């Protein structure tokens, strides 16, 4: 194995200075409802296209739960079209917003009280999406793992059977570390990998 544990991987990624041009917690609009929208829109889409959709939503005032629930569905769909799968995603957004309203009343209460089980019970929310919401919208100490994470760890000599086993490999101290650890992995893989290979020399092996 090229790294002994997640702490060593974290330290090696830090040497690459991957987040020098990123916000403190990596994900834009950390701790806001916009993260929830972004998590859904990011599914099977490039983040550049998601950013266009988020800007459309913001320009039309659709960056709050109440405004999403009271808007015409046609407007919501038009705003998120750049992200693709816009019919399904609009349904997921509306359903989740209504569930948040029904069970938590507002976004602030949602961020304080929601748990992973509740999120996973919502239509269109899988493990990665649930953990992304907990980490980046709710400011929780939750490590998000994704395809990039799995590919990097595989290149380092590790194999995992499923999402939960991969996630359990990581040891994170707090919300800032969790957010930045995932962010560093994504940034590293975007710049140092292809579908067939991962360059590891940037981490000074």
Structure description:
The chain has 205 residues and is mainly alpha-helical. It contains 12 helices and no strands.
Topology of helices and strands:
Elements: H1 6-14, H2 33-42, H3 47-59, H4 65-70, H5 73-80, H6 86-104, H7 107-113, H8 116-120, H9 127-137, H10 147-155, H11 163-168, H12 175-192
Describe the structure in brief.
The protein has 205 residues and is mainly alpha-helical. The chain has twelve helices and no strands. The protein folds into two domains: 6-23 and 142-203, Endonuclease Iii, domain 2; 33-137, Hypothetical protein, domain 2 (Endonuclease III, domain 1).
Which descriptors apply to this entry?
globular; 2 domains; Endonuclease Iii, domain 2; single chain; mainly alpha; 59% helix
